[in-house]
Amino acid sequence: MIIEEAAAFRTEIAGARRVVVKAGSSSLTTPQGTIDADRIDALVDVLAMQKAAGREIVFVSSGAIAAGLGPLGLTRRPSDLATQQAAASVGQGLLVARYTSSFARYGIRVGQVLLTADDMMRRAHHRNAQRTLEQLLALGVVPIVNENDTVATDEIRFGDNDRLAALVSHIVRAEALILLSDVDALYTGDPREPGARRITDVRGPQDLADVKLGGSGRVGTGGMVTKVEAARIAGGASVPVVLTNAASAAAALSGEPVGTYFHPEAHRPSTRHLWLAHATVGHGRLVLDPGAVDAVVRRRKSLLPAGVTGVQGDFTAGDPVDVVDENGRVVARGLVNYDAGEIPSLMGRSTRWLAREMGPEYEREIIHRDDLVVLDRESDREGAR
Ligand SMILES: Nc1ncnc2c1ncn2[C@@H]1O[C@H](COP(=O)(O)OP(=O)(O)O)[C@@H](O)[C@H]1O
Ligand SMILES: N[C@@H](CCC(=O)OP(=O)(O)O)C(=O)O
User: Where does ATP bind (predicted)?
Assistant: First the structure.
Protein backbone atom coordinates (compact mmCIF):
# COMPACT_ATOMS: atom_id res chain seq x y z
CA MET A 1 0.00 0.00 0.00
CA ILE A 2 1.29 3.48 -0.80
CA ILE A 3 -0.14 6.32 1.26
CA GLU A 4 -0.18 9.93 0.08
CA GLU A 5 2.89 9.71 -2.11
CA ALA A 6 3.23 11.11 -5.60
CA ALA A 7 1.84 8.20 -7.61
CA ALA A 8 3.00 7.25 -11.09
CA PHE A 9 1.19 7.88 -14.39
CA ARG A 10 -1.06 4.88 -15.14
CA THR A 11 -0.33 3.67 -18.63
CA GLU A 12 -2.79 0.73 -18.44
CA ILE A 13 -5.65 3.16 -17.80
CA ALA A 14 -4.52 5.69 -20.38
CA GLY A 15 -4.25 2.93 -22.99
CA ALA A 16 -7.53 1.18 -22.21
CA ARG A 17 -9.83 1.13 -25.22
CA ARG A 18 -12.94 -0.27 -23.56
CA VAL A 19 -13.78 1.23 -20.18
CA VAL A 20 -16.57 0.69 -17.66
CA VAL A 21 -17.36 3.83 -15.66
CA LYS A 22 -19.56 3.53 -12.59
CA ALA A 23 -21.04 6.54 -10.79
CA GLY A 24 -22.68 6.31 -7.36
CA SER A 25 -25.97 7.91 -6.33
CA SER A 26 -24.19 10.66 -4.41
CA SER A 27 -22.46 11.85 -7.60
CA LEU A 28 -25.65 12.10 -9.64
CA THR A 29 -28.41 13.36 -7.36
CA THR A 30 -29.08 16.31 -5.05
CA PRO A 31 -29.64 16.16 -1.29
CA GLN A 32 -33.32 16.93 -2.10
CA GLY A 33 -33.70 13.60 -3.89
CA THR A 34 -33.71 14.86 -7.46
CA ILE A 35 -31.42 14.48 -10.44
CA ASP A 36 -28.44 16.81 -10.35
CA ALA A 37 -28.62 17.94 -13.97
CA ASP A 38 -25.42 19.99 -13.84
CA ARG A 39 -23.30 17.18 -12.46
CA ILE A 40 -24.80 14.72 -14.94
CA ASP A 41 -24.01 17.07 -17.82
CA ALA A 42 -20.46 17.53 -16.52
CA LEU A 43 -19.94 13.77 -16.37
CA VAL A 44 -21.51 13.26 -19.80
CA ASP A 45 -19.13 15.94 -21.16
CA VAL A 46 -16.22 13.80 -19.96
CA LEU A 47 -17.63 10.53 -21.30
CA ALA A 48 -18.52 12.07 -24.68
CA MET A 49 -14.98 13.41 -24.98
CA GLN A 50 -13.57 9.95 -24.22
CA LYS A 51 -15.81 8.45 -26.85
CA ALA A 52 -14.75 11.04 -29.41
CA ALA A 53 -11.17 10.04 -28.67
CA GLY A 54 -12.02 6.49 -29.81
CA ARG A 55 -12.87 4.77 -26.55
CA GLU A 56 -15.84 2.51 -25.92
CA ILE A 57 -17.69 3.45 -22.76
CA VAL A 58 -20.11 1.37 -20.70
CA PHE A 59 -21.70 3.53 -18.03
CA VAL A 60 -23.04 1.91 -14.85
CA SER A 61 -25.27 4.49 -13.22
CA SER A 62 -26.76 4.28 -9.74
CA GLY A 63 -29.17 6.92 -8.53
CA ALA A 64 -32.57 5.51 -9.50
CA ILE A 65 -33.76 5.28 -5.89
CA ALA A 66 -32.19 8.61 -4.89
CA ALA A 67 -33.65 10.40 -7.95
CA GLY A 68 -37.13 9.06 -7.21
CA LEU A 69 -37.29 10.36 -3.65
CA GLY A 70 -38.03 14.03 -4.40
CA PRO A 71 -40.74 13.36 -7.01
CA LEU A 72 -42.49 11.06 -4.53
CA GLY A 73 -42.25 13.58 -1.69
CA LEU A 74 -39.91 11.36 0.33
CA THR A 75 -37.31 13.15 2.42
CA ARG A 76 -34.97 10.21 3.01
CA ARG A 77 -34.11 6.84 1.50
CA PRO A 78 -36.88 4.40 2.58
CA SER A 79 -35.82 1.29 4.44
CA ASP A 80 -38.50 -1.04 3.06
CA LEU A 81 -37.87 -2.76 -0.25
CA ALA A 82 -41.26 -1.99 -1.83
CA THR A 83 -40.88 1.78 -1.39
CA GLN A 84 -37.25 1.61 -2.60
CA GLN A 85 -38.49 -0.21 -5.69
CA ALA A 86 -41.26 2.33 -6.27
CA ALA A 87 -38.70 5.14 -5.97
CA ALA A 88 -36.34 3.31 -8.34
CA SER A 89 -39.14 2.87 -10.86
CA VAL A 90 -39.80 6.62 -10.90
CA GLY A 91 -36.14 7.64 -10.67
CA GLN A 92 -34.79 5.27 -13.33
CA GLY A 93 -37.08 6.70 -16.01
CA LEU A 94 -36.07 10.23 -15.11
CA LEU A 95 -32.37 9.33 -15.08
CA VAL A 96 -32.42 7.69 -18.50
CA ALA A 97 -34.43 10.59 -19.93
CA ARG A 98 -31.74 12.90 -18.60
CA TYR A 99 -28.89 10.81 -20.03
CA THR A 100 -30.67 10.60 -23.38
CA SER A 101 -30.89 14.37 -23.72
CA SER A 102 -27.49 15.06 -22.22
CA PHE A 103 -25.66 12.64 -24.57
CA ALA A 104 -27.80 13.93 -27.47
CA ARG A 105 -25.90 17.23 -27.15
CA TYR A 106 -23.03 15.25 -28.70
CA GLY A 107 -25.15 13.21 -31.11
CA ILE A 108 -24.60 10.10 -28.98
CA ARG A 109 -27.35 7.53 -28.39
CA VAL A 110 -27.77 5.71 -25.10
CA GLY A 111 -29.38 2.33 -24.39
CA GLN A 112 -30.81 1.26 -21.06
CA VAL A 113 -29.60 -2.12 -19.74
CA LEU A 114 -31.21 -3.35 -16.53
CA LEU A 115 -29.72 -6.48 -14.96
CA THR A 116 -30.45 -8.53 -11.86
CA ALA A 117 -28.10 -10.64 -9.74
CA ASP A 118 -30.15 -13.60 -10.96
CA ASP A 119 -29.34 -12.69 -14.58
CA MET A 120 -25.67 -12.77 -13.69
CA MET A 121 -26.01 -16.26 -12.22
CA ARG A 122 -27.82 -17.84 -15.14
CA ARG A 123 -25.35 -18.68 -17.83
CA ALA A 124 -27.85 -18.13 -20.67
CA HIS A 125 -28.91 -14.69 -19.36
CA HIS A 126 -25.26 -13.80 -18.77
CA ARG A 127 -24.44 -14.66 -22.39
CA ASN A 128 -27.43 -12.68 -23.63
CA ALA A 129 -26.36 -9.63 -21.64
CA GLN A 130 -22.89 -10.05 -23.16
CA ARG A 131 -24.29 -10.17 -26.69
CA THR A 132 -26.53 -7.14 -26.15
CA LEU A 133 -23.73 -5.06 -24.67
CA GLU A 134 -21.37 -6.03 -27.50
CA GLN A 135 -23.98 -5.08 -30.07
CA LEU A 136 -24.73 -1.74 -28.40
CA LEU A 137 -21.01 -0.91 -28.43
CA ALA A 138 -20.68 -2.02 -32.04
CA LEU A 139 -23.52 0.36 -32.91
CA GLY A 140 -21.77 3.24 -31.17
CA VAL A 141 -24.31 3.40 -28.35
CA VAL A 142 -23.37 4.13 -24.74
CA PRO A 143 -25.04 1.44 -22.60
CA ILE A 144 -26.44 2.85 -19.34
CA VAL A 145 -26.50 -0.08 -16.92
CA ASN A 146 -28.27 -0.35 -13.57
CA GLU A 147 -29.66 -3.10 -11.41
CA ASN A 148 -33.26 -3.91 -12.28
CA ASP A 149 -34.38 -2.68 -8.87
CA THR A 150 -38.10 -3.22 -9.36
CA VAL A 151 -37.79 -7.01 -9.56
CA ALA A 152 -34.78 -7.58 -7.28
CA THR A 153 -35.63 -9.28 -3.99
CA ASP A 154 -33.89 -8.76 -0.64
CA GLU A 155 -32.32 -12.22 -0.78
CA ILE A 156 -30.89 -11.91 -4.24
CA ARG A 157 -29.89 -8.38 -4.92
CA PHE A 158 -26.73 -6.38 -5.50
CA GLY A 159 -28.12 -3.33 -3.65
CA ASP A 160 -25.03 -1.33 -4.47
CA ASN A 161 -23.80 -1.14 -8.06
CA ASP A 162 -20.11 -1.65 -7.36
CA ARG A 163 -20.13 -5.43 -7.71
CA LEU A 164 -22.46 -5.16 -10.70
CA ALA A 165 -19.96 -2.80 -12.37
CA ALA A 166 -17.13 -5.28 -11.75
CA LEU A 167 -19.17 -8.13 -13.27
CA VAL A 168 -20.04 -5.91 -16.25
CA SER A 169 -16.31 -5.30 -16.70
CA HIS A 170 -15.92 -9.09 -16.95
CA ILE A 171 -18.82 -9.42 -19.36
CA VAL A 172 -17.53 -6.81 -21.81
CA ARG A 173 -13.86 -7.71 -21.23
CA ALA A 174 -13.16 -4.13 -20.24
CA GLU A 175 -9.62 -2.88 -20.04
CA ALA A 176 -10.32 -0.54 -17.13
CA LEU A 177 -12.97 0.15 -14.50
CA ILE A 178 -13.43 3.61 -13.03
CA LEU A 179 -15.49 3.83 -9.82
CA LEU A 180 -16.76 7.35 -9.13
CA SER A 181 -17.98 8.17 -5.64
CA ASP A 182 -18.41 11.21 -3.40
CA VAL A 183 -14.98 10.60 -1.92
CA ASP A 184 -11.83 11.24 -3.98
CA ALA A 185 -9.99 8.04 -2.98
CA LEU A 186 -9.79 5.15 -0.59
CA TYR A 187 -8.47 6.33 2.77
CA THR A 188 -6.89 4.48 5.68
CA GLY A 189 -10.22 5.06 7.47
CA ASP A 190 -13.49 6.88 6.85
CA PRO A 191 -12.41 10.40 5.72
CA ARG A 192 -15.26 11.83 7.77
CA GLU A 193 -13.10 10.92 10.80
CA PRO A 194 -9.90 12.90 11.50
CA GLY A 195 -6.51 11.38 10.65
CA ALA A 196 -7.54 9.34 7.60
CA ARG A 197 -4.91 9.38 4.84
CA ARG A 198 -5.26 8.75 1.13
CA ILE A 199 -4.08 5.43 -0.30
CA THR A 200 -2.73 5.91 -3.80
CA ASP A 201 -1.99 2.29 -4.78
CA VAL A 202 -3.30 -1.11 -3.75
CA ARG A 203 -1.39 -4.12 -5.04
CA GLY A 204 -3.12 -6.93 -3.18
CA PRO A 205 -5.18 -7.90 -0.12
CA GLN A 206 -2.16 -7.44 2.16
CA ASP A 207 -2.34 -3.70 1.41
CA LEU A 208 -5.83 -3.54 2.85
CA ALA A 209 -5.21 -5.44 6.06
CA ASP A 210 -5.10 -2.28 8.25
CA VAL A 211 -7.62 -0.21 6.29
CA LYS A 212 -10.93 0.58 7.98
CA LEU A 213 -13.64 0.20 5.39
CA GLY A 214 -16.60 2.17 6.65
CA GLY A 215 -20.21 2.42 5.64
CA SER A 216 -21.87 4.49 2.96
CA GLY A 217 -22.71 8.17 2.78
CA ARG A 218 -26.17 9.72 2.77
CA VAL A 219 -27.69 8.08 -0.31
CA GLY A 220 -25.17 5.42 -1.37
CA THR A 221 -25.14 1.76 -0.44
CA GLY A 222 -22.27 -0.43 0.62
CA GLY A 223 -19.65 2.27 1.31
CA MET A 224 -16.04 1.28 0.71
CA VAL A 225 -16.55 -2.42 1.45
CA THR A 226 -18.38 -3.00 -1.83
CA LYS A 227 -15.93 -0.81 -3.79
CA VAL A 228 -12.94 -2.76 -2.54
CA GLU A 229 -14.78 -6.00 -3.28
CA ALA A 230 -15.55 -4.71 -6.80
CA ALA A 231 -11.89 -3.81 -7.28
CA ARG A 232 -10.89 -7.33 -6.24
CA ILE A 233 -13.40 -8.94 -8.63
CA ALA A 234 -12.27 -6.74 -11.53
CA GLY A 235 -8.57 -7.06 -10.67
CA GLY A 236 -8.89 -10.85 -10.61
CA ALA A 237 -9.85 -10.60 -14.28
CA SER A 238 -6.86 -8.42 -15.01
CA VAL A 239 -8.95 -5.23 -15.12
CA PRO A 240 -7.22 -2.24 -13.46
CA VAL A 241 -9.47 -0.08 -11.26
CA VAL A 242 -9.37 3.57 -10.24
CA LEU A 243 -11.54 4.78 -7.38
CA THR A 244 -12.06 8.54 -7.27
CA ASN A 245 -14.76 11.21 -7.35
CA ALA A 246 -16.75 12.47 -10.33
CA ALA A 247 -14.80 15.75 -10.44
CA SER A 248 -11.63 13.75 -11.15
CA ALA A 249 -13.21 11.51 -13.80
CA ALA A 250 -11.38 13.07 -16.77
CA ALA A 251 -8.02 12.93 -14.99
CA ALA A 252 -8.62 9.33 -13.89
CA LEU A 253 -9.53 8.25 -17.42
CA SER A 254 -6.39 9.91 -18.77
CA GLY A 255 -4.18 7.85 -16.46
CA GLU A 256 -3.30 10.72 -14.13
CA PRO A 257 -2.43 9.61 -10.60
CA VAL A 258 -5.68 10.70 -8.91
CA GLY A 259 -7.70 8.61 -6.45
CA THR A 260 -6.68 5.07 -5.61
CA TYR A 261 -5.29 2.66 -8.19
CA PHE A 262 -5.98 -1.04 -7.69
CA HIS A 263 -3.34 -2.90 -9.65
CA PRO A 264 -4.72 -5.83 -11.63
CA GLU A 265 -3.55 -9.42 -11.57
CA ALA A 266 -1.51 -10.34 -14.62
CA HIS A 267 -3.47 -13.41 -15.60
CA ARG A 268 -7.05 -13.26 -16.93
CA PRO A 269 -9.08 -16.44 -16.28
CA SER A 270 -11.62 -17.52 -18.90
CA THR A 271 -15.00 -15.78 -18.91
CA ARG A 272 -16.54 -19.09 -17.86
CA HIS A 273 -14.28 -19.31 -14.78
CA LEU A 274 -14.93 -15.68 -13.91
CA TRP A 275 -18.64 -16.28 -14.16
CA LEU A 276 -18.40 -19.36 -11.93
CA ALA A 277 -16.29 -17.62 -9.30
CA HIS A 278 -18.07 -14.31 -9.03
CA ALA A 279 -21.55 -14.46 -10.51
CA THR A 280 -22.89 -17.75 -9.19
CA VAL A 281 -23.77 -19.13 -5.77
CA GLY A 282 -23.41 -22.79 -4.82
CA HIS A 283 -26.70 -24.70 -4.89
CA GLY A 284 -25.23 -27.26 -2.50
CA ARG A 285 -21.92 -28.53 -1.13
CA LEU A 286 -19.57 -31.41 -1.70
CA VAL A 287 -17.26 -32.32 1.19
CA LEU A 288 -13.75 -33.51 0.21
CA ASP A 289 -11.09 -35.51 2.01
CA PRO A 290 -7.65 -33.81 2.31
CA GLY A 291 -6.21 -35.68 -0.69
CA ALA A 292 -9.00 -34.49 -2.94
CA VAL A 293 -8.64 -30.90 -1.66
CA ASP A 294 -4.97 -31.04 -2.60
CA ALA A 295 -5.76 -32.50 -6.03
CA VAL A 296 -8.36 -29.82 -6.79
CA VAL A 297 -6.73 -26.77 -5.22
CA ARG A 298 -3.01 -27.32 -5.72
CA ARG A 299 -2.82 -29.74 -8.65
CA ARG A 300 -5.88 -28.31 -10.44
CA LYS A 301 -7.28 -31.79 -11.16
CA SER A 302 -10.89 -32.80 -11.83
CA LEU A 303 -12.89 -33.86 -8.79
CA LEU A 304 -13.35 -37.64 -8.78
CA PRO A 305 -15.94 -39.59 -6.72
CA ALA A 306 -13.16 -41.26 -4.68
CA GLY A 307 -12.35 -38.04 -2.79
CA VAL A 308 -15.91 -37.02 -1.89
CA THR A 309 -16.98 -37.79 1.68
CA GLY A 310 -20.25 -35.92 1.93
CA VAL A 311 -22.98 -34.13 0.00
CA GLN A 312 -25.25 -31.36 1.24
CA GLY A 313 -28.21 -29.60 -0.35
CA ASP A 314 -30.45 -30.34 -3.26
CA PHE A 315 -29.02 -29.74 -6.72
CA THR A 316 -29.27 -31.18 -10.19
CA ALA A 317 -26.56 -32.02 -12.72
CA GLY A 318 -25.22 -28.81 -14.27
CA ASP A 319 -25.77 -26.65 -11.15
CA PRO A 320 -22.92 -24.73 -9.51
CA VAL A 321 -21.95 -26.31 -6.16
CA ASP A 322 -19.44 -25.30 -3.50
CA VAL A 323 -16.57 -27.65 -2.80
CA VAL A 324 -15.58 -27.62 0.89
CA ASP A 325 -12.86 -29.24 2.99
CA GLU A 326 -13.56 -31.30 6.11
CA ASN A 327 -13.76 -28.09 8.20
CA GLY A 328 -16.45 -26.64 5.95
CA ARG A 329 -14.10 -24.09 4.32
CA VAL A 330 -15.11 -23.35 0.73
CA VAL A 331 -12.11 -24.11 -1.51
CA ALA A 332 -13.66 -24.22 -4.98
CA ARG A 333 -16.87 -24.01 -6.97
CA GLY A 334 -17.83 -26.07 -9.98
CA LEU A 335 -20.58 -27.28 -12.26
CA VAL A 336 -21.51 -30.72 -10.98
CA ASN A 337 -22.10 -33.64 -13.35
CA TYR A 338 -24.60 -35.52 -11.13
CA ASP A 339 -27.81 -34.86 -9.20
CA ALA A 340 -27.39 -34.61 -5.41
CA GLY A 341 -29.31 -37.86 -4.95
CA GLU A 342 -26.90 -39.84 -7.14
CA ILE A 343 -23.72 -38.85 -5.34
CA PRO A 344 -23.92 -40.91 -2.10
CA SER A 345 -23.72 -44.16 -4.07
CA LEU A 346 -20.63 -42.90 -5.95
CA MET A 347 -18.69 -41.49 -2.99
CA GLY A 348 -15.36 -43.16 -2.23
CA ARG A 349 -15.49 -45.29 -5.39
CA SER A 350 -12.88 -45.32 -8.12
CA THR A 351 -14.09 -44.32 -11.59
CA ARG A 352 -12.96 -47.74 -12.84
CA TRP A 353 -15.14 -49.51 -10.27
CA LEU A 354 -18.08 -47.25 -11.12
CA ALA A 355 -17.74 -47.94 -14.85
CA ARG A 356 -17.58 -51.68 -14.24
CA GLU A 357 -20.39 -51.91 -11.68
CA MET A 358 -22.75 -49.12 -12.75
CA GLY A 359 -22.09 -48.61 -16.44
CA PRO A 360 -19.76 -46.46 -18.59
CA GLU A 361 -21.82 -43.28 -18.03
CA TYR A 362 -20.61 -43.35 -14.39
CA GLU A 363 -16.98 -43.11 -15.40
CA ARG A 364 -17.14 -39.33 -15.58
CA GLU A 365 -15.78 -36.96 -12.95
CA ILE A 366 -18.02 -35.38 -10.33
CA ILE A 367 -16.74 -32.01 -11.58
CA HIS A 368 -14.49 -31.66 -14.62
CA ARG A 369 -11.46 -29.39 -14.13
CA ASP A 370 -12.67 -27.07 -16.93
CA ASP A 371 -15.82 -26.48 -14.89
CA LEU A 372 -14.00 -25.97 -11.60
CA VAL A 373 -12.65 -22.75 -10.15
CA VAL A 374 -10.51 -22.53 -7.04
CA LEU A 375 -11.72 -19.86 -4.61
CA ASP A 376 -9.07 -18.10 -2.62
CA ARG A 377 -11.09 -17.48 0.50
CA GLU A 378 -8.06 -16.22 2.47
CA SER A 379 -7.76 -13.20 0.22
CA ASP A 380 -11.57 -12.82 0.19
CA ARG A 381 -11.55 -12.38 3.93
CA GLU A 382 -8.66 -9.95 3.92
CA GLY A 383 -10.19 -7.92 1.09
CA ALA A 384 -13.50 -7.53 2.90
CA ARG A 385 -12.02 -6.40 6.18
N1 LIG B 1 -11.74 3.94 4.23
C2 LIG B 1 -12.58 4.76 3.57
N3 LIG B 1 -12.10 5.52 2.56
C4 LIG B 1 -12.91 6.32 1.85
N5 LIG B 1 -14.25 6.47 2.09
C6 LIG B 1 -14.79 5.76 3.09
C7 LIG B 1 -13.99 4.85 3.87
N8 LIG B 1 -14.80 4.27 4.78
C9 LIG B 1 -16.04 4.75 4.56
N10 LIG B 1 -16.07 5.65 3.57
C11 LIG B 1 -17.29 6.34 3.12
O12 LIG B 1 -17.80 5.70 1.95
C13 LIG B 1 -18.61 6.67 1.27
C14 LIG B 1 -18.85 6.27 -0.19
O15 LIG B 1 -19.68 5.11 -0.26
P16 LIG B 1 -21.18 5.19 -0.86
O17 LIG B 1 -21.97 6.20 -0.05
O18 LIG B 1 -21.70 3.81 -0.91
O19 LIG B 1 -20.89 5.84 -2.27
P20 LIG B 1 -21.55 5.74 -3.71
O21 LIG B 1 -22.94 6.31 -3.64
O22 LIG B 1 -20.63 6.59 -4.53
O23 LIG B 1 -21.52 4.31 -4.15
C24 LIG B 1 -17.84 7.96 1.42
O25 LIG B 1 -18.70 9.06 1.45
C26 LIG B 1 -17.05 7.79 2.73
O27 LIG B 1 -17.55 8.62 3.75
N1 LIG C 1 -29.66 0.38 -8.24
C2 LIG C 1 -29.66 1.34 -7.16
C3 LIG C 1 -28.26 1.49 -6.61
C4 LIG C 1 -28.31 1.96 -5.20
C5 LIG C 1 -27.08 2.58 -4.63
O6 LIG C 1 -27.16 3.24 -3.63
O7 LIG C 1 -25.89 2.40 -5.30
P8 LIG C 1 -24.53 3.24 -5.04
O9 LIG C 1 -24.87 4.70 -4.96
O10 LIG C 1 -23.69 2.93 -6.19
O11 LIG C 1 -23.92 2.78 -3.73
C12 LIG C 1 -30.16 2.69 -7.65
O13 LIG C 1 -30.01 3.00 -8.84
O14 LIG C 1 -30.68 3.46 -6.84
Answer: 22, 181-182, 221-227
